[in-house]
Structure formats: C-alpha cells, structure tokens
Specification:
Layout (H helix, E strand, L loop, with lengths): L8 E2 L11 E6 L2 E6 L8 E4 H12 L6
Antiparallel strand pairs: 1-2, 2-3, 3-4
C-alpha cells in the first residue's frame, strides 16, 4: 500500500517536544495512525467506528496507566 501522498493530521494533544506524538489520516472507511516523530514507523489501520471508540475511551480516561 502506497501512502506516500497521504495527508496526515497531527493530534492537537501532541506537544512540540513531547514523547506522545500521533498523526492520523483517513483511508476510505478506515483511519491510519502513526507516530509523528518517525514517519517510517508502522502504520496502524482501524475501521472508522473502532477509531471513534478508541478516541472516546481515551477522552474518558479509560486507557490511562
């Protein structure tokens, strides 16, 4: 899969020098997620409903360590 022309959006929660930097991009009915500090990092592909569920759990603090 060629994603070289993909338009990535950085999370508003990503800080300039922080360690928690995430970018997302749409691909059809799915959302791709990657580490914005390393463009060669693996890309995770989630169906849009699963991505919305993940974001909801994060916002609720359901995945805090």
């Amino acid at each position: 899969m060629d994603i070289s022309k993909t338009r990535w959006r950085k999370s508003s929660r990503s800080s300039g020098g922080g360690q928690n930097c995430v970018e997302v991009a749409r691909m059809g009915g799915s959302v791709m997620i990657r580490d914005s500090k390393d463009e060669a990092s693996p890309v995770h592909l989630l169906p849009s409903p699963a991505f919305r569920m993940l974001v909801g759990r994060i916002k609720q603090g359901g995945l805090d360590l």
